[in-house]
């Protein structure tokens, strides 16, 4: 009798802890009807041969070819889905000007449902093809189009956490792009939450509504209060931008006399299910508040190179017990790939540690103990993301979802430099993380279902 829906045989890499990536060589991954990893069996386990004998001729059995490896699917904790339409452009000016010159105009076009669906189909497919199995999305202020994004995630099999963006403050938003008023913003958000919860019942992988005040400047006190209450009432996720740039951080200090973290907390917006993007300017007390409330930081290393006016001290925040994941921040970050963001996270951290001004003596240039390793950056994109959203994802372990990318290292046009048949698996892992391109991502699975192949 066959107990499992699928059995996969192959070598996998998965974080054991922030610093340690475990290699599971030639293991069997036994997947149940719910798409969860029910058992992982090592080659020296007694059951190994029994399972092989039972399954290996069945279509439920999948053996990786030589040169192929499993990685956990990536968890992108911060994507502006509508901004996919301008990804790779418009990065020449600071945040405030960028929002008003490029981003609010493009987002306002999502009142057109056909245009919205077009872009959203494309961004969800693109992220899947880049190995992103779970994404935490900002949509736009438009309720219908935001629901269309949730629908598209449901249909394509991606685990989408989706927010209708709220921005009702006439002082900081343009007339052509804002919620009609605070009451409408709250009513639309509640309808959106209920509709996505209904939709979720029809999916295997889950889609989730997210309460989404864009950031403090674009919201009135009334709406921020109301959104905190709605999140508590419906037990939803919350996402926003927090202490991102000098301008934004300064604006909040001027309006409330405190940092974003404490201001957001006053409105009930820091909870176990909150994810705050950027957080470059958190001070020690802010970080403690994040750790106490279970609020996660989403590190957006590519975007931060353009808008942050600083490099976030990730290593220091991690050591304070703050949950941290990784985000592309499309289109503040130009790349839809979390591989690219893992690479940038490592590089930015090294620049923070070493400093950048060659006119200063070496010992005065940087911030000591700031660098993170490739393993730590990979952790942020996988296990750290899973912890941030409190879901059993991001690790290839029993009782975690079968969310994986199958990496093919021998693609003709994107061949990895693997010449030694006995190459150490940790080295192979590093080559994969630094060198993989979408061409190398052969299959992507979410919750035990194949959602992409090439
Ligand atoms: N702050 C408010 N809105 C945005 C946005 O769309 N992108 C980034 N990077 N920061 C923001
Ligand atoms: Fe953002």
Task: Kindly describe this structure.
With 454 residues, the protein is of the alpha/beta class. Helices cover 39% and strands 21% of the residues. It contains 16 helices and 17 strands. A hairpin with a 5-residue loop joins strand 2 (21-31) and strand 3 (37-41). Helix 12 (338-354) packs across helix 14 (374-381). The longest helix has 19 residues, at 182-200. The structure holds guanine and fe (iii) ion. Residues 80, 95, 99, 103, 214-215, 241, 244, 303, 307, 329, 332 line the site of guanine.
Work out the strand percent.
Answer: 15-25%
Q: Provide the helix percentage.
A: 25-40%
> How many H/I helical runs?
16
Low-confidence stretches: none
Number of strands: 17
**Whole-number radius of gyration?**
22 Å
Instruction: Kindly provide the name of the CATH class of the largest domain.
Output: Alpha Beta
CATH H-level name of the largest domain... which superfamily?
A: Metal-dependent hydrolases
> How does the overall form come out from the CA principal axes?
globular
- How many distinct folded domains? 2
Largest sheet: 9 strands, parallel
The CATH level-2 architecture of the largest domain is identified as Alpha-Beta Barrel
Bound molecules: guanine, fe (iii) ion
Please state the average pLDDT score: 97
Structural class: alpha/beta
Head-to-tail CA distance between termini: 32 Å
CATH topology label of the largest domain: TIM Barrel
């Amino acid at each position: 009798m066959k107990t499992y829906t699928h059995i996969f045989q192959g070598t996998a890499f998965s974080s054991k802890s922030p610093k340690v990536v475990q290699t599971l060589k030639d293991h069997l991954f036994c997947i149940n009807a719910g798409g969860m990893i029910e058992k992982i069996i090592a080659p020296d386990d007694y059951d190994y041969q029994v399972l092989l004998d039972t399954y290996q001729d069945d279509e439920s059995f999948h053996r990786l070819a030589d040169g192929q490896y499993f990685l956990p699917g990536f968890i992108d904790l911060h994507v502006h889905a509508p901004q996919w339409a301008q990804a790779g452009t418009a990065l020449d000016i600071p945040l405030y000007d960028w929002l008003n010159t490029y981003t609010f105009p493009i987002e306002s076009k999502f009142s057109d449902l056909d245009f919205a669906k077009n872009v959203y189909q494309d961004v969800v497919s693109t992220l899947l093809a880049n190995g992103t199995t779970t994404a935490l999305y900002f949509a736009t202020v438009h309720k219908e189009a935001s629901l269309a994004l949730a629908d598209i995630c449901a249909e394509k099999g991606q685990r989408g956490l989706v927010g209708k963006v709220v921005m009702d403050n006439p002082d900081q938003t343009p007339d052509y792009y804002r919620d009609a008023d605070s009451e409408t913003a709250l009513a639309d958000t509640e309808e959106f939450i209920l509709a996505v919860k209904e939709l979720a019942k029809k999916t295997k992988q889950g889609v989730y509504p997210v309460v989404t005040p864009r950031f403090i400047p674009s919201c009135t006190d009334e709406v921020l209060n109301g959104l905190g209450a709605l999140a508590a009432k419906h037990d939803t996720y919350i996402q926003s931008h927090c202490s991102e740039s000098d301008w934004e951080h300064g604006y909040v200090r001027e309006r409330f006399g405190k940092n974003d973290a404490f201001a957001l907390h006053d409105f009930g917006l820091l909870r176990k299910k909150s994810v705050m993007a950027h957080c470059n300017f958190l001070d020690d007390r802010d970080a403690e508040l994040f750790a106490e409330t279970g609020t996660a930081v989403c590190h957006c290393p590519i975007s931060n190179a353009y808008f942050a006016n600083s490099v976030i001290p990730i290593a220091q925040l991690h050591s304070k017990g703050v949950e941290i994941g990784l985000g592309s921040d499309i289109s503040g970050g130009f790349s839809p790939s979390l591989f690219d963001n893992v690479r940038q996270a490592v590089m930015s951290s090294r620049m923070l540690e070493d400093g950048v001004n060659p006119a200063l003596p070496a010992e005065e240039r940087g911030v000591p103990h700031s660098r993170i390793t490739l393993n730590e950056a990979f952790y942020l994109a996988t296990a750290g993301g899973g912890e941030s959203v409190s879901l059993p994802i991001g690790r290839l372990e029993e009782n975690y979802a079968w969310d994986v990318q199958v990496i093919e290292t021998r693609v003709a046009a994107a061949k990895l430099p693997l010449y030694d048949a006995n190459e150490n698996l940790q080295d192979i892992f590093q080559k994969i993380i630094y060198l993989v391109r979408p061409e190398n991502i052969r299959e992507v699975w979410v919750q035990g279902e194949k959602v992409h192949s090439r």
